Amino acid sequence: MLYPFFPTKRPFQALAWWLMLTVGPWLSVGAVADTTAESPGVGTAKVSVGIDGHYRVGRWTGLRVEGAPSIRAIETRDGDGVEVRYLQPESSSSGGSGGSAWSYAVPGSEAAPLIARDESGVVASTRFPTLGSPSRGPAMIPLEMPWLVVFGDPLGVDMIGANELLDRDALVAVSRPREAAECPDSSIGYDGVDMMMIGGSSRQLLAGLSEQQHEAIVDWVVDGGRLFLTLGETAPELVEAAPWLSTLLRLEQWEVIRIDPSALETYTSSQTPLVAFSGLRLPKDTGRTLIMGRTIRRSSTPVAVEFNAGLGRVTVVAADLEDELFANWPERLDLITRLTGSILIVNQEPQVRKSRTTAYNDLAGQLRSSLDQFKVNRRYGFSFVSLILMALIAAIGPLDYLVLNRVFGRPLLGWLTFPIVAIGLSAILVHQSRPVMSTTATASSPAKIGATAAGTSGGIADKSSVRRCNRVEIIDIDSTIDVGRGFTVDYLYSHEATRLDVTVTESDTLMKMVEQPGNLLTAPFGYPGPSFGGIQIAIEDSRLPLYEVPVRRVASGPSRQWLRSNLVGVPLASRSSKGIVTRSRFVPKLIAKPLIERRPGSELLRGELINPLPVDLLNGMLIYRNWTYVLPTRFLAGGRIAMVQSLRQKNFRWHLSRQKTLESETETEPWDPANLDAVDRIAEMLMFHGAVGASRYTSLEDGPLSFLDLSHVLTEDRCILLGRIADPATRFESTSPDEAAVEPSGERLTFVRVVLPVVDRQTES
């Protein structure tokens, strides 16, 4: 019917117009239907993202939906653009006076889709906030911007870098919860926060927090967080409102004294004099004294002290910096900046890629690239391929000329022999290039896991062995307050397209070191951006199906609950891989709690050392400040070294940088960001990036995995026992619909760090 409207001399143009008029309306209807299905108008409930609207990509983020306290699922996209649904526990915990319910998910990108569902359907459909200015409202916080959670007065930190004349916003993201309902009820709600500040004016807010919200803050600090406290005249009232502060500081008495301000004036080089103020009496023999002052009676007393709280640290200033006395003092912000170190020192220089040989600018990207390599196929060199081509030419030429022409005299048979030879040779090559599994360990992989996935006879992979899993595990234990955490990165490879259920649980080896299990959260790893070597594009991948991450609560005791999760139905395309991260928390079980003795007036150790772990340590070392003591190749479980000073000593910074002294010259091995073979060296940098000089040595940042750096623990009263263990700490199992659970083979590396106390016998006596 449409043909008469088009000229007969242009049939292709007529066909294009016909397709546009007939098929176009159907396509537009489908597009409108898809847009309506995900439009914000479907759910009318308001979603509160993160803390005060702030969150980080790739980190666990707390979500609250007003008017819908029983959220059952949160749908978003992971870092690969695949749709993922986080199933929430049946009974969400409520915290604070507002009784708000918290759900948790991991956004995979900026402005990722966010769909909240309850039992009746969709209650909210929107997106995570985009990258913007945190001082103006909800926003995604980039890695290079410090993120602080402030209870009380921000003390001017929220104005760092701000300029009204230039219309420039602050360079520090500050989240200020105003109500108890805005505080997460789990430590994973603070994932990605760089520092927490608590002042005396937050007494009422802290008093309204529930027990689970208290435990969330404490767990976050002892797991490696940073806390900044101002304890002045209101310190007794503050600790009464938040008794858990005494658990972190371990102070025997909370006495308020009058302090002379000269120490603060000297520390900040202030030209504005202060008057005497009231502050908490801090101990002299505990922690690291940052500022030593004196009272109005001329007796010495610390004014600022940094305490070790498990794997984290707490900085305490014996003054109410919120008072009018310090609010009008020009050097107040300078004092806070110097006490907190590099957290509030923002690098305003434009970021340029320091290494043009890599697409990533972070150690996390180098770790991802090193793990995302799988040796499952036979590799043939150029010479072998050349021989195959020569054999093909030789087989076709003589066969066609000599046999067919000379012997049979039928050259037309070449049309039959040529495809037969080509197809037969191709079939042989395809058969020989099938995925194979190496049955021997490599140098960087001391042992293999997963006997059920071992190769069959002849080295050819069976159905389950077409999957590989490379992994790095780091287990940290603090023996001073009995807290432990685990971190595992797994990269799962599949040679064939499949959907898998992934479960990560504690292995028998780890259970020997665990008194009480805690959190064990498994989630996707990585996101697009320069940290992992990707670029930010439209990452919503509609080709792969949705998978689920069930988050469940496990009761432990009368009031304690832990969170656990696994992955269900993870889609893997043919010859593709998936990054998976697992973070755990537990109460450790040690054979002994040794006290390491320090030589008076030196940075060296002496006395006895006992292996407190119930497993053997391989290639271990004892690290104290800038010295490392090389342990025997195998340090047996419960083993004993009578004299630490008899061990070989090395400079720890030189050990990390592989620095050597040759006659009168020193040679340092430069860090190669493009080197993907030494996984143990990359893990070593992640564990002590600050001790080696950070980006000044590696030319790489340390953003997504900065919590693994325990360089700050190497103080006068702490040392670290580091070593590798032979067996994995976690059990990685993948299950497909047509087979039982298996543990894929691959390269793995498991480190264990134990923080031990160091005492000075002369001081104790």
Describe the structure.
This protein has 17 helices and 41 strands. With 765 residues, the protein is α+β, with helices and mostly antiparallel strands. Among the domains are: 144-346, 3-Layer(aba) Sandwich (Rossmann fold), CATH 3.40.50; 363-374 and 438-513 and 589-765, no CATH class; 382-432, no CATH class. The strands form ten sheets. Strands 21, 22, 24, 28, 29, 30, 32, 33, 34, 36, 39 and 41 form a twelve-stranded mixed sheet that branches. A seven-stranded mixed sheet has the order 13-12-14-15-20-19-18. Helix 10 (363-371) packs antiparallel against helix 15 (679-687) and helix 11 (382-408) packs antiparallel against helix 12 (414-432). The model is unreliable at 1-9, 23-41, 92-100 and 437-464 (pLDDT under 50).
How many E-type strands? 41
User: Roughly what percent helix?
Assistant: 10-25%
Q: Count every helix, treating DSSP H or I runs of 4 or more residues as helices.
A: 17
Classify the secondary structure makeup into a structural class: alpha+beta
Features:
disordered N terminus, seven-stranded mixed beta sheet, single chain, 17 helices, 765 residues, globular, Rossmann fold, twelve-stranded mixed beta sheet, alpha+beta
Secondary-structure topology with pairs:
Blueprint: H1 11-22, H2 24-37, E1 47-49, E2 54-55, E3 61-65, E4 73-77, E5 83-87, E6 94-95, E7 100-101, E8 103-105, E9 113-118, E10 121-127, E11 139-140, E12 147-151, E13 173-175, E14 195-198, H3 203-207, H4 211-222, E15 226-230, H5 235-241, H6 244-249, E16 256-259, H7 262-268, E17 277-280, E18 288-294, E19 300-309, E20 312-317, H8 324-327, H9 332-340, H10 363-371, H11 382-408, H12 414-432, E21 467-478, E22 483-494, E23 498-506, H13 508-511, E24 514-524, E25 547-556, E26 560-565, E27 567-572, E28 576-588, E29 596-598, E30 605-606, E31 609-610, E32 617-624, E33 627-630, E34 634-635, E35 640-641, E36 648-651, H14 652-657, E37 660-662, E38 665-667, H15 679-687, H16 695-698, E39 718-724, E40 730-735, E41 748-759, H17 761-764
Helix pairs in contact: 10-15, 11-12
